Amino acid sequence: MGLQCCFSVTTLHTLKLSPISILRQSTKIPTLQPSLPPPQPSTPSPRQSPFRPSSHRTHNNFVKAPQWKAAIDFKWIRENKEAVAANVKNRNSNANIDLVVELYDKLLDVRKEVEGLRAERNVIANRMKGKLESSERQKLVEEGKNLKERLVTLEEDLLKLTDELQQEAQWCAKYDTSRCSSRRRRLFYHKKNCW
Fold this sequence. Notes:
Protein name: Seryl-tRNA synthetase
Structural class: mainly alpha
Organism: Abeliophyllum distichum
Number of strands: 2
CATH topology of the domain at 72-172: Helix Hairpins
CATH class of the domain at 72-172: Mainly Alpha
CATH superfamily of the domain at 72-172: Serine-tRNA synthetase, tRNA binding domain
Coiled coil: 100-164
InterPro entries: Ser-tRNA-ligase_type_1, Ser-tRNA-synth_1_N, SerRS_1_N_sf, tRNA-bd_arm
Region (Disordered): 30-60
């Protein structure tokens, strides 16, 4: 018994079929349930969790970086602190608006200090481009090293503050735009529809 089939354009092959019984009954009873391991309980992601965890800090007292950064208008929260607090209360959220405002103020201070140190570093770098005596050059190199060390620590602090501020601010409820000015409402909806 043979079956002819074409595997390529030029050749014709014959497949030999062995006599098998297709209609033979199987001794196994088919089951509809697959043999999968039982499901393991998983921890809910931060976005799925309906309750705020007691602390955002790990065992080393470091703040975890948020998985995503929301576009939050911290300046508006600071200017309209009472309205945001009332909105949080109406939505039964336990966000700490005072902490968000405090962290935002600290962030602005650290950001100003970092920008000042960068400006100083640039001034020193520009002074080193000219002709200098070796003692003056050595003094400028030492100042540059000190500025670099301070800048590195401040940038780390800035990053931690940014992450902590994002963590805290993401617990704030969505703004109630019905109480906003018409200009702000238009900007809010324009931004919302552009995403």
